């Protein structure tokens, strides 16, 4: 065999060999509780984020992509601004964890009320509590408090498979064995949503996903968040989380369900039309 043929043979041989799994400094983890604790510790290292992103929504109510500026801080501080294709303001949302306000530029209307899941998720076709929305945008998975858990190593997918169980609910986490970061989460047995993280990059000593995918199958909804220019764990500008209506905007008070309220109580719904 000549040298050229030998080189080609070695290349083909090496390409056919599976790459060796890489583990972190801890080596291969065999205990589910140990991996669960490592996952929690890795997620806790990112506490705030500020910068720009693209938000794509695909839902029964419609689809589209918006440019987004966001500043979020654990556990529940949120400041989001969205812009259309022509960089015109669409909406802005602020929540301090207890109260929220959202300005709708097209209607020049400012809604305010308690920071319930229904209210802080008004700009999304899926309802998430403040703490979960912040966690997801920080590249983290809201974890099911487990009653029991199991751990396997999937050598084909090259991930740990950590399964959490609580009553009828299960959460299956696929975890990178080297960096111990969750790359995928699936919830079954109860209403929930699946998460996937991609395009990890080392940012300020933190391995962080540039892409976040959320799928709520029961609502027929998909959200894709792609970060373009962000900063992690900086000193947050707390003025961004101050509530207040823009000058000249119509102010509407809403209750925890998002219904308009007046001093005498919730606005009653109009009666159905005859024959409806």
Automatic annotation (TrEMBL):
InterPro entries named in the record: DUF4292
Naturally occurring in which organism (per UniProt): Corallococcus coralloides (strain ATCC 25202 / DSM 2259 / NBRC 100086 / M2) (Myxococcus coralloides)
Stretches the record annotates as Disordered: 255-276
Highest taxon of source: Bacteria
Protein name, UniProt field: Lipoprotein
Pfam families linked to this entry: DUF4292 (PF14125)
């Amino acid at each position: 065999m000549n040298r050229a043929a030998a080189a080609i043979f070695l290349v083909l041989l090496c390409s056919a060999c599976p790459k060796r799994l890489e583990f972190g400094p801890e080596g291969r983890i065999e205990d589910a509780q140990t991996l669960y604790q490592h996952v929690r510790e890795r997620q806790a290292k990112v506490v705030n984020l500020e910068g720009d992103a693209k938000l794509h929504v695909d839902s029964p109510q419609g689809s589209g992509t918006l440019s987004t500026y966001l500043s979020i801080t654990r556990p529940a501080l949120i400041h989001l601004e969205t812009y259309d294709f022509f960089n015109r303001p669409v909406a802005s949302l602020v929540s301090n964890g207890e109260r929220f306000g959202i300005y709708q530029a097209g209607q020049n209307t400012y809604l305010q009320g308690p920071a319930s899941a229904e209210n802080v998720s008004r700009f999304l076709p899926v309802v998430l509590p403040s703490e979960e929305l912040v966690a997801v945008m920080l590249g983290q998975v809201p974890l099911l408090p487990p009653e029991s858990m199991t751990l396997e190593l999937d050598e084909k997918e090259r991930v740990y498979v950590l399964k959490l169980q609580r009553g009828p609910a299960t959460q299956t986490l696929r975890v990178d064995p080297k960096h111990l970061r969750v790359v995928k989460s699936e919830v079954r047995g109860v209403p929930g949503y699946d998460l996937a993280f991609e395009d990890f990059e080392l940012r300020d000593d933190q391995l962080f996903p540039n892409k976040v995918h959320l799928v709520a199958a029961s609502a027929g909804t998909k959200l894709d968040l792609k970060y373009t220019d962000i900063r992690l764990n900086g000193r947050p500008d707390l003025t961004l989380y101050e509530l207040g209506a823009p000058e000249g905007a119509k102010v509407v008070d809403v209750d925890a369900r998002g219904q308009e309220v007046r001093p005498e109580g919730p606005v009653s719904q109009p009666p159905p039309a005859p024959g409806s």
